[in-house]
Amino acid sequence: MPLRQLPLRQFALLLIFGLCAALASAQSNRQDPLPSWNEGTVKSTIIKFVQQVSTEGSPYFVPAAERIATFDNDGTLWAEQPLYFQAIFAIDQVNEKAADHPQWRQEEPFKSAITGDIAGIMATGMEGLGKIIAASHANLTADEFRTSVRHWLASARHPQTDTLFTDLIYQPMLELLQYLRAHDFKTFIVSGGGIDFIRVFSEDTYGIPPEQVIGTTSEAKYEVINGIPTIVKTPNIILVDDKDGKPVGIYRHIGRRPIFAAGNSDGDKQMLEYTTLPHGSDDQTPRLGLIIHHTDAKREWAYDRQSDIGKLDKALDESRQHNWAVVNMKKDWRQVFPKAR
Length: 341
What we know:
Elements: H1 8-30, H2 41-54, E1 68-71, H3 85-97, H4 110-115, H5 118-123, H6 125-137, H7 142-155, H8 171-182, E2 186-194, H9 195-206, E3 213-225, E4 228-239, H10 245-253, E5 260-263, H11 269-276, E6 288-293, H12 314-318, E7 325-328, H13 329-332
Parallel strand pairs: 1-2, 1-5, 2-3, 5-6, 6-7
Antiparallel strand pairs: 3-4
Helix pairs in contact: 3-6, 7-9
């Protein structure tokens, strides 16, 4: 029936329904997918990239199966000062075990760990941190380790903020993860932190399931203990998922090259290169690298080139050359943590 022949009441209802649908569509278009991000170049670059690669018919369209996004964890998804949170966990575990190892009170780095001397631990370098992590992580079953991490995360307090460590995740990055997944990206963590440690909380905290976590990996062995099939962690490291190790970890675990990568330090430079630099003249796939620059001493911590933790130097220098978007935390983030400090 032509519209002009419809009864007035039916015509009015159709008009109202049409207006409501138009208003709903307009409202949807106006909704901000990244409300904790201030308007600016970085935010607009992210939104433009996501729309280009996910809109069918776009000359930059990327099939959903190839929309891989990788994120560093420490300093990118949650804070990392004054020491990597996994290292703080390891120190706490060493203190719990110290009574069974009296020699630790005279032996570095354990002596500094027991006395709470972070500067002393840092003076022992990565080798010292490795000894602490090995002593606290190895020769446990996977279930024992998982349980110890869960208990620690539920009760341990950050030494400077007196908050739970999971309160120090970045609200803007949670929104970015959700925004990417809403456009059929598969999101992965690619971290120098331990894969077994991050897998305990990644799904509840970030919405990233354990099978999408890549991290520093130690050997493990299978045993049947008291009739129960069991995985036992060992101290031997088989992948250090940092710097050159990050592209290797991506290659081994994902099997696809990402089109988006986010990091915050020189330890992420190789992952950003692997993601964004063209692989030959015929590589026309749109790609985006993102660097979180810690510039906000009031709401978080300000550090970069001289920091022992999360040093950002060479990657910052190369960001313009490679068109990596650099987040100025102080300027670009309206809110840093889900709960204001």
